[in-house]
Amino acid sequence: MPCPGAGLLRPDRRLKLTGRRVLRVGGSVVETMAIKVSATGPSGDGSVGLVETSTLKLFSPPESLTLAGGGQLGAITVAYETYGTLSAERDNAIFVCHALTGDAHAAGYHDAESEKLGWWDDFVGPGKGLDTNRYFVICANVVGGCQGTTGPGDVAPGSEAPWGLEFPFITVDDMVTVHRALVEQLGIEQLLAVIGGSLGGMQVLEWAARFPDTIRSAIVLASGAKLPARGIAFNAIGRRAILVDPSFHDGDYYSQDEVPRFGLALARMVAHVTYLSEASIEMKFGRRLQEGDQFAYDLARETEFQVESYLHHQGKQFVERFDANSYLYLTRAMDYFDLGATHGSLTEALGRSDARYLVISYSTDWLFPTSQSREVVSSMVEAGRDVTMIEFESPFGHDAFLIEHEQLAGVVVPFLEQTLEAARGRS
Amino acid sequence: MSATRYSMPGPDTEMIDELLLEQVDDGSRVIDLGCGDGRLLDRLRSERGCRVLGVELGEAEVTAVIGRGLSVIRADLDQGLGDIPDDSFDTAVLSQTLQQVHRPTTVLREMLRVARRALVVVPNFGHWRIRLKVIQQGRAPVTDSLPYEWYDTPNLHVCSMHDIRDLVDQLGIKVVREIPIIGGRPVERAWWANLRADSAMYVLERANA
Predict the structure, then answer these.
(1) What pLDDT digit, counting tens, does each position of B80-121 carry?
(2) Phi, psi (rounded to 5 degrees) for A283
């Protein structure tokens, strides 16, 4: 099978990635066969190398987490990874909030055989944007997710069966409360930075409002204080695709032979389009055909254009790693997020923390257009906070924050250095 | 060809920074429009204890500002300062930049929307030697610090001190102070300033303030 993605990136990007076995296309990892793998070891290739996902149990009875949407949840298992070393002063920790379908595995690889790199390996590692030689980086799967942290696919307490749609409603507030509890459990009182893109950026903003004294800086990428209506619309289409899949069984499909893979794949295909831009779609695919240069005049062929083939591949890959119920819960959490409404006003929410803010948007992002970043920046200025904002030029749409790692490192590196310097100067 | 023309002395950056620093209250909030690498912001913070924010378009300059541990918003001044709420600063600074923006009136109005007070430094193309050269040679003036030909220059507008006065009057802006810079020195209440000054600093406020 020809590999979707390979050969579709800009030539310079492919060159940079030579020596890895994966390409990052549209925010997802695509295994490539075309690229020759050089034999550099984990320490030599700028990767954190072999890593493991750890788990911690939080909110164990008699405690429980009071959810923002009502109800209680506990105990909660949290899957997380750490990279680098925590300083003796415990002042160099950075928490990474992943986006909608990310996981705790941000950098390095789990299995020396497959060398499948973490979702942000380009940005997290020795000498990279989040330099693991200097900083202690933590990434955890969100509550409600399906990659190690408690979510609807886990068995409910006192039951034999998974939660399914009985799982309580999860909000961005809850995700952050659990992250914060994890960080506290790891013995870190104050983070040097909390950073995240998209849904991850929402978590960063919520963190600043909810736990203002626990962070020295907040880095928000391709995000905003709420999801614009167009984003809700696309999430609605994705959820609809899952809900009408005959294999959905009201969310109780775990014991069935089939999971709602078609619905989930379709949800992913739709969402993927929102992560790209007009420019990046044209650049990667144009109207090129997958095979040959003649139309097949065959309606049954669903992968005639390269863009079709790519989306099908993305959908297919996604169902291998993601749970349909989690997708419903997490997209809803994203829809519901409204920082200003939750905390009275944006200025009130963002004025509580003394953290230095860094807000980044991308010129071709139509899921979170720059106007969304401007809105939060405006409130930060009004609240008298320190804020740096940059709209980067990039053709890669919403996915740019996962792709343009050098551009991002160009500002994140000095920003973190200065934040750490100020922190150490103060104490 | 530009060598045969009169070149205005380059603005003495250091001296102009000093002059700007003098106009700012300790601990006040200052926004510097077209802040470059953040040189002035850094001094405002360390010497005057100001809370500062820069606005700059150049990517390398923005990175330099971040490298100083200062806050900066990357923006094009001609697009206005939409992100910045009204009255969020005490002072807005615009040094050697007004002649380079497409819409000087928008920028001036925006400055006095976001801040109570505006400090503006502009080169004075009314200097007698420029006038003389224009008459003698019939060519557009070129300056030392910005030695560009008329068709390829960041200096989009050529204005004199009289022109600035006319403009601020028209915009309903009050000139609190006008400090001509002559021969590298600030000379307040100079005679024949529009003939003698290389540049001038204006302290502006809203007329109704």
Answers:
(1) 888 899 999 999 999 988 888 889 999 999 999 999 999 999
(2) -70, -45
Q: Above 80 in pLDDT, residue A240?
A: yes
Whether the full predicted model's pTM is greater than 0.95, yes or no, is no
Q: How far is CA A409 from CA A124, A205, A361, in A?
A: 10, 20, 14
Other C-beta atoms within 10 Å of A357: how many?
Answer: 26
Q: Residue A418 is nearest to which of B53, B69, B74, comparing CB atoms?
A: B69
> How is residue B34 written in tokens?
């077209």
The torsion defined by the Cα of B152, B155, B156 and B160, in degrees rounded to 10, comes to -140
Nearest Cα residue to A402 out of A201, A110, A115, A144: A201
Which of A245, A398, A399, A405 is labelled catalytic? A398
Given an 8 Å threshold on Cβ–Cβ distance, is A374 in contact with B82?
A: yes
Place of tokens 């030697």: B129
**Beta strand extents in A200-294 (DSSP E only):** 217-221
What does residue A121 show for φ and ψ, rounded to 5 degrees? -60, -30
Annotated active-site residue A398? The verdict is yes
Report the range of poorest mean pLDDT among A333-342, A362-371, B144-153. Answer: B144-153
Residue A185 has a pLDDT of 97
Give the total number of structural domains in chain B: 1
- The CATH number for A344's domain is 3.40.50.1820
For residues A28 and A156, the model is more confident at: A156
Q: What is the pLDDT of residues B19-34, one digit of tens each?
A: 999 999 999 999 999 9
Count of the separate structural domains present in chain A: 1
Q: CA distances (Å), A197 to each of A96, A151, A270, B51, in order?
A: 9, 21, 19, 28
Q: Does residue A132 fall inside a structural domain? A: yes
CA distance B207 to B108: 13
Query: Which has the higher per-residue pLDDT, B181 or A123?
Result: A123
Domain span holding position B58: 2-206
The identity of residue A419, as a single letter, is T
* pLDDT at site B97: 83
Q: What stretch of H or E contains B64?
A: helix B59-67
Query: What is d(CA A107, CA A131) in angstroms, rounded to the nearest whole number?
Result: 11
Taking a C-beta distance cutoff of 8 angstroms, is the pair A177, A65 a contact?
yes
Residue A324 has pLDDT above 70, yes or no: yes
B180 contacts B200 by C-beta, under 8 angstroms: yes
- Report whether pLDDT(B200) > 70: yes
CA distance B72 to chain A (A): 5
CA A206 to chain CA centroid, nearest Å: 15
CATH number of the domain residue B184 falls in:
3.40.50.150
Name the nearest CA neighbour of A8 among A328, A305, A396, A284.
Answer: A284
Instruction: Name the residue facing A374 among B67, B68, B83 (closest C-beta).
Output: B83
| Measured CA distances, A238 to A233, A246, A274, A328, B39 (Å) | 9, 15, 12, 8, 50
ipTM: 0.88
Indicate if A373 belongs to the active site: no
What DSSP state is assigned to residue A13? H
